[in-house]
Amino acid sequence: MQSSAALEYDYSVAKLYMWTAVIFGIVGMTIGVLIASQLAFPELNYLFGEYGTFSRLRPLHTNVVIYGFTVSGIFASFYYAAPRVLKVSLGESKLLKGLGYLQFGLYLIAATFLVISLAMGITASKEYAQMEWPLDVLIVVIWVLWGIIMFGLIGMRREKALYISMWYYIATFLGVAMLYLFNNMEVPTVFFSGGLGHWYHSVSMYAGTNDALVQWWWGHNAVAFVFTVPIIAIIYYFLPKESGQAVYSYKLSLLSFWGLMFVYLWAGGHHLLWSTVPDWMQTMGSVFSVVLILPSWGSAINMLLTMKGEWNQLTENPLIKFMVLASTFYMLSTLEGPIQAVKSVNAIAHFTDWIPGHVHDGVLGWVAFMIFASMMHAAPRVFKREIYSKSLLEAQFWIQTTGVVLYFTSMWIAGITQGMMWRAVDEYGNLMYSFIDTVSVLHPYYTIRAIGGLLYLIGVFMFAYNFFMTATAGRKLEQEPQFRSPMA
User: Fold this and answer.
1) Residue of 150, 225, 230 whose CA lies nearest to 180
2) 360 is in an annotated binding site
3) Where are the domains of the chain?
């Protein structure tokens, strides 16, 4: 790579997304701890009337964490890292910079109305796609603006080769664009209701099995192209930069990229096992899910081997701790998911708490850890101030790691317990346990999950404080922090 010292990068848009990531992280994960506590202690459902029940807050939690915290973190990383690998500043084009501000403004409007609408119970009732059609239209505009900015920067670049992180950002843009459009095909009811009424309401263009197939084609690939592909883009930039180590194998990164692109798209059918979906589609979902282990582990192993010979940095640098453990959680999660997609395992696991256990060891251990690490790596360069407290980062790492471990181990035990109790029969073939029997048995594990979530939330507040203090009170830097090796 060429030296980037001669360029003065414009981080104005990146800063905006950094702050929204902090705010939405606090909001989304606070709601998450509340609803986890409600499952352990049901009386908490009545604290805020209808607006505070689990059924109202759960979609709010998932959407704020996905489209608020995670997407803000992705955009922040893009506006920081993409100009640096392309050797071009956003500020060099008034048009692109203006579009960046416009994109952020529209994003903030969409995120605000998402929170308001879901809190009011206005929902399209599709997992990860609860927004009604006016917000869907706005999301499309925001996404198109991002694409214009991305390809505009690529067109202006001074670096001839596209670094692997850019491949993953481009795939994120194209993948989400295609899947979001298809899944959110809907007809506003205002066109046939005879009046304005609930003008914002709509009905899906699909029905029955077709609706389920399209929904989970999107639903699972929301995990692929929001929780996986852009996070790999982040680690492929930030881990080499923070460690001073070149990526272990660039060829492996490309091989894993194309493997993910071809395989991930067809794994969504595993959400519909043992349903009315044609059996061959269910089998295809299972097979592609198992094959998905190969490109996923290819990426994760490549990340870990990047640290070959430099493992001592784990004891010196808390950001390296976050990134290495994130890669480890990525390996764990991408093995666990395919295991759950095997039909015989899925017969026990589906609808149990093992599923949210799997989701959260991926989201909390992989996605959130990488966003925290990338933002704290970028902060000294964006704000020109030293990280306020590395010891606070260290404490955050251990507290949140403890929280994640408590969360997923309690949910693994709870989920397998549920699955076995639901299937248990006596010598006459009658079910041995009622539903409430399983609820009673699981109470201790629900309590442990809530405690694990609380520990993780404490870490989020520690991160927010550290980030704020870094931006406002960290020791001023005369020049950008230097990397450990000449490769930067």
Assistant:
1) 225
2) yes
3) 12-473
The annotation status of 350 as a binding-site residue, yes or no, is: no
Of 13, 66, 58, 27, nearest to 368 by C-alpha is 66
Q: Is the pLDDT of residue 113 over 90?
A: yes
Q: With contact defined as beta carbons under 8 Å apart, do 75 and 24 qualify?
A: no
Confirm whether residue 358 is marked as ligand binding: yes
Question: Which pair of structure tokens corresponds to residue 305?
Answer: 């081997």
Q: Which CATH class is domain 12-473?
A: mainly alpha
Residues 419, 349 contacting (CB under 8 angstroms)? yes
- The confidence band for 196, taking pLDDT boundaries of 50, 70 and 90, is low
Of 400, 399, 442, 447, give the one whose Cα is nearest residue 422: 442
- The annotation status of 198 as a binding-site residue, yes or no, is no
Under DSSP, the state recorded for 121 is T
Report pLDDT digits (tens) over 324-368. Answer: 999 999 999 999 999 999 999 999 999 999 999 999 999 999 999
Cβ distance 135 to 189 under 8 Å? no
pTM over 0.85: yes
Rounded to whole angstroms, the Cα distance separating 450 from 35 reads 9
Q: How far is CA 13 from the centre of its chain?
A: 20
First to last CA, the chain: 7
Torsion angle, alpha carbons of 179, 180, 183, 187, to 10: -150
- Annotation-wise, does 201 bind a ligand? no
Backbone angles phi, psi at 425, to 5 degrees: -130, 155
Q: What angle do CA 217, 220, 225 make, to 5 degrees?
A: 100
Distance CA 55, CA 121 (A): 9
From CA 371, how far away is CA 359, in angstroms rounded? 17
61 is in an annotated binding site: yes
pLDDT of 386 higher than 50 = yes
The pLDDT value recorded for residue 1 is 41
pLDDT higher than threshold 70 for residue 302? yes
Of 84, 96, 103, 95, residue with least CA distance to 17:
103
Angstrom distance (rounded) from CA 424 to CA 3: 64
Angle, nearest 10°, between helix axes 229-243 and 250-264?
A: 170
CB contact set of 198 (below 8 Å; sequence gap of 6+): 189
Could you tell me the pLDDT band of residue 7, with boundaries at 50, 70 and 90? Answer: confident
Give the pLDDT confidence of 59-107 residue by residue, as tens digits: 999 999 999 999 999 999 999 999 999 999 999 999 999 999 999 999 9
